[in-house]
Every structure is written in structure tokens, then in C-alpha cells.
Amino acid sequence: MNREHSGTISLYEAIGGAETISRLVQAFYPKVQADPSIGPLFPEDITPVMEKQALFLTQFFGGPSLYSDKFGHPMMRARHLPFPITPERADAWLGCMKRALEEIGIEPHLQTAVLERLKAPAYHFVNTP
């Protein structure tokens, strides 16, 4: 979202920018790792995944294009194809994100905005019934 054209700030700015993205990722991944349906899909050393997620969410929510600058076009569906992603796993991922947003104290209307923004890609990655 470009502030000059839309007259509004990006979701990235609304939630608090880089500091909030960092706190969100730190709160999110322990929940993911503990989830029996999606935890096993992630590597034991979660640090590189967390770093990429922070770059991606920054860009996805309207902040600087950190992910693309470092890794090129996100192509997130293709990057997730090696993993069996079911609708239930997409729900679990979104549930972990919801709990992380609550834990770090994001305002309820912004929690809703973040989750709405993430719903489409979460279900777009589904590749297994």
C-alpha cells in the first residue's frame, strides 16, 4: 500500500513495523513447533525459517521489499509444494498466528486485518486433500 496514493498507512506500519514483525515471528514459531499437525513439517533449526518469515511478512504487509531483495520473487505456493498442506494444516497455521497476535498484544481490529490478509495465501498453499 503506498501512502501517497491511498491516503492510508500500510498494515506493516499500522501494527508497528519491524519491531512488531520480529515480536510476532518470535511468538509464532514456538506455537508452530508445538502443533502436532504442522510442527513436524518444519526443520529442527527453525532460525532460518523465522528469518525468512520476518522478511516475507514485512513485505507482505506493505513494508520494505526485504524478501524480494534477498531471495527474488516470493513464489510462496511453489516453495510450499514439497510439503503436504491440508486445509486442516492451513487452519492450524492460522490458529498459531492468531494466538501469537493475541500474545504480543496487537489491537483486535488489527489482529483481524492481519488474519484476513493471511487467509488467502494460507488456503492457496493447500495441495493435499
From TrEMBL:
<dbReference type="GO" id="GO:0019825">
    <property type="term" value="F:oxygen binding"/>
</dbReference>
<dbReference type="GO" id="GO:0005344">
    <property type="term" value="F:oxygen carrier activity"/>
</dbReference>
<dbReference type="InterPro" id="IPR001486">
    <property type="entry name" value="Hemoglobin_trunc"/>
</dbReference>
<dbReference type="InterPro" id="IPR012292">
    <property type="entry name" value="Globin/Proto"/>
</dbReference>
<comment type="similarity">
    <text>Belongs to the truncated hemoglobin family. Group II subfamily.</text>
</comment>
<keyword id="KW-0479">Metal-binding</keyword>
<dbReference type="InterPro" id="IPR044203">
    <property type="entry name" value="GlbO/GLB3-like"/>
</dbReference>
<keyword id="KW-0813">Transport</keyword>
<keyword id="KW-0349">Heme</keyword>
<dbReference type="InterPro" id="IPR009050">
    <property type="entry name" value="Globin-like_sf"/>
</dbReference>
<dbReference type="Pfam" id="PF01152">
    <property type="entry name" value="Bac_globin"/>
</dbReference>
<protein>
    <submittedName>
        <fullName>Globin</fullName>
    </submittedName>
</protein>
<dbReference type="GO" id="GO:0020037">
    <property type="term" value="F:heme binding"/>
</dbReference>
<dbReference type="GO" id="GO:0046872">
    <property type="term" value="F:metal ion binding"/>
</dbReference>
<keyword id="KW-0408">Iron</keyword>
